[in-house]
Amino acid sequence: MALAIETNALSRSFGTSRAVESVDLRVEAGSFYGFLGPNGAGKSTTIKMLTGLLEPTSGRMEVLGQDPRVPSQALEMKSRIGVVPEDLALFDNLTAREYLIFVGRMHSMPGDLLRKRIDELLGLLSLQDEEAKLTIEYSHGMKKKLALAGALLPDPDLLFLDEPFEGVDAIASRTIRHILTTFVERGSTVFLTSHVLEIVERVCDHVGIIVGGELVEQTALAALGSGGSLEERFLEVVGADAGAQNHLSWLEEDAS
Amino acid sequence: MNRLHLRAVLWLRWRILVNRTVRAGRLSNAVFTILLAFGGLLCVAGFLTAFAIGIETLPEARPFHLLAAWAALSTLFLFIWLTGLMTDLQHSEVMSLEQLLHLPVSSHGVFLYNYLSSFVSVAVAICLPAMAGLCLAMVIVHGPRMLWCIPLVLAFLGMITALTYQLRGWLAGLMQNKRRGRNVIALLTFLFVLLIQVPNLINMSELGSDRTTVEMTGIEQSSGDEERDALPLAREEHTKARLKQTITLTVQILPIGWLAFGASSVFAGHALQGVACFVGMFSIGAWSLRRSFRSTLAAALGREKPVRRRRSAAARADSSAERGERHGLQFGERRLPFVDDREAGIALASLRYLLRAPEVKLSLLSPLVILLMFGFLLSRSGRGESLGAFAPLMTLGSSLIVQLSASSMIANSFGLDRNGVRSFLLAPLPRHRILRGKNLAMAPVGIGISLTALAALWFLLPLGPFHVLGACLQAFSAYLLTCLIGNVMSILIPIRLKENTLRAENARLKPILTQLLPLVLLPVAFIPLMIPAGADFLLRLEGWQLGGLWFFLLHAIGLAGIAMLYGRAILVQGDLLQRREAGILEILTKE
Q: How much is the pTM?
C-alpha cells in the first residue's frame, strides 16, 4: 500500500535537548493514524516537521511523496494537505468567514465553490451564529472548530490535526469524528494527535506512540485488540509506574 | 479589616511588579534596580528639598507662590499617577477582582484591600514625601494654622485615587468585551499622549501666532528707541500676567487644583476657602469610592444592569449576512486589478485584520497627529510662502515621517501576524507572492497617508502642479524602498510581539535595538530621493523657474528604477523567506 507519510531517522534537537529522536513513521494512505504520547513527548514537534513548519535536525521524510524541505516539493505538498497546528493559525482580527475566504484564496479556489463550502462548514460546525465575532472573541473550542474548517476547506488528501478534540464540546466532537471518518472512508488520510484515548480507540485504525522523542510503538489498532484496551497498552509502553506516588497523604488519612 | 489579607494583597502587587520586571530580562532588571534605588533617594531628597526650600522661601512668599508650588506638585503627582495607570490598564492581573473573590474574603474586604494597595505606587512614593516636607515647612514658618494642609493633601490623594479607581472599575466593565477592551486601551493611550502634547501645542501656537507677531511688529514700528528697548521686558511681564491668571483660574475651577487653591487660601488667611476645598475633595473621593465599589463588584460578579437591550449575536450575524448579500462579494473576496488573485487575497485579509488591530490604529494615528500639528503650526505662522525653495524637500520630510511610523509594522510584518503567520507559511504559493501581498496590504497606509499629507501641504506651501505630481511619485518610491528594507528585516530579524501592542514580548536589548533599526536605515535609503529636490533647488538658484518640471521628471525616472529594483529584489527576498521560514516560526510562535 502507498504511504502518505514516511520518515527515516527523523530527529530534532533544541539546543542540547532532543525533542524527537530517530523516528521512523509509516502512515499508509487512506488510514486514520493516531499519534499518541504524554505531554512533551514530541508529538507537536513531529507534526511541525512533517508540515514544513520546523526544520528537522537530521533524518529523511516524505509527505505524499514530497520532501517538505525542498521548496518546490514543499509547495506541492502544502497544496494537498490541511493542518490544524498546536496553537492554531488564526488571525485575531478576522471573522470566521473572512479567515476561510483567505484560506480558500490561498488554495486558488473558485469563488462560488469557496462560498458554498464555507457556508456548509460554518453550518456544520455551528459557527454560523458567531459570524459577527472576531476570532479573538472565540472560545478555545470555537477556535479549534474554525481551524479545522480551514484545514478541511481545500479538500486535502492528508489532514494533520494536533489535538483536534481538546476543548471541543461533545456535540462538536461527534460532528468532527463523523466528518473525519467520512474523510478517511473516501480514501484520504488523517494524522492526529490526541490525549483522549477513547476517541483515538474509536476512530483510528493505526496508532503510533512516542515517548521521550522516540517512537516506541507503531501498529494497527486491531493488532492491540488481544492485549487489552489502548489505555492499558499506552500506560504500559509509556512506562507509568504503578508504584509511583499517586495519592495525597491527608486524603488517605481521612479515608482510613 | 484583616491585616493578614491586606499584607497578602500588598505582597501580591509587589510580586506582580517584580516578576514582570524580572521576566523582561537583565537589562530591564538592572534598570528597575537603579530606578528603585533612585526612587528611594528621590523620596528622601524630595522631603528634604521641599522642606529646605519651604523654610528658606516661605517667610517672603506670597499666596501665588505657594499656589504655584502646590500646583506643580499636584501636576507632577498626576502625571506619574496617570502613567502608572496606563501601564496597569494593560496588565489585567492588577485590575481583576475575580481573581480574589473566590477566596475567603468579603467583597468589601477585597475592594478595600485592592484600593488600599493602589496607594503603593511610584507617584505616591515620589510626591508624598515632598508634599509632607512642604507641609512641615509651612507649619514651622507660619504656625499651626497651616496644619490644614495635611488634611488637604490627604483629601487630594483620596480624591485622585478614588476617581482613578472608579475609572478603572468602569473600564474593567467595558473591557469585559475583549474587542472593545483593546480599543479602549488604545484610545486611552492616544488621549494620554494628546493630553501631554496640549501644553506644547499651545505654547508653540502662541509663539508662532500671527497675532503676537503683528502686535509686536506694530509696537516696533510705532515706538522709539527707548520703547523698543523696553519691549522684551513688557513682553515678559505680559506673559507672566497671563500665566498667573490662567493658573489661578485653573486651580479654582478644576478639583485637581483644589489642593493648591486650598493651601494658598489658608496661607492668605481665608480659612473657609481651605475648608471648602477639603470638603469638596473629600466628597468627590467618597462618592467615587462608593460608585466604584458598586460598579466594580457588579462587573466582577456579572450583575447585569437593566440597560437598553443589545442586539443578540444571532441578530447581528443575520444582519451581517444580509449586508454581505446586499453588497455581493465580501471584502476579502474582491479581485484587485493587475494583481495575482492569491496576492490580492493576502493583501485584503492582511489589510482587514491590520485595520482592526488597536495597536495598528494607534500607530497609524501618530503620523497623522504629527502632520496635523505641523500643518497647524505652519498655517498659524503663515510662513508657508517664505519657505519657497524648500517646499519640495518638505514633501520628502512628510513622506519620511509616514514611512517611519509605518516601518514598525512593515519591518516586522510576520511578527504582527502572531500565530497567523503559520497560515501564510502553510499556504501553497511562492514566497515572493506572500511578500508582495503583504506589501500591498500596507500600501493604503504607506502611500495613502503620504498622499493625504501631500494634499494638505499643497495648500500650505508654494507647490506647483509638477511639484505635486513629483511628490506623488516620490511617495510611491518611498513606500517601495520601505517595503524592501521592511521585508528583509521581517525575514531576518522577526520579533515576537505582545498581544495588542507593537512592543516586543521579550523586552531585551536586541529586539528593542532591532525595532529602532528602521530609524537609521530609512533616512539613509531615502538619500537618493533628495536628488530631485536638490536639483530643483539649484535650478531655482540659477533662476530656472520651470515650475518643478525637473522635480517631476527626476522622480518619474527614480520611481521606474526603484520599481525595477523592487521587482527583482522581491524574488530574492522570496527565496530568502523560503529558507528562513522555519526559523521565523521558531521565533514567532510558541513552542
A: 0.68
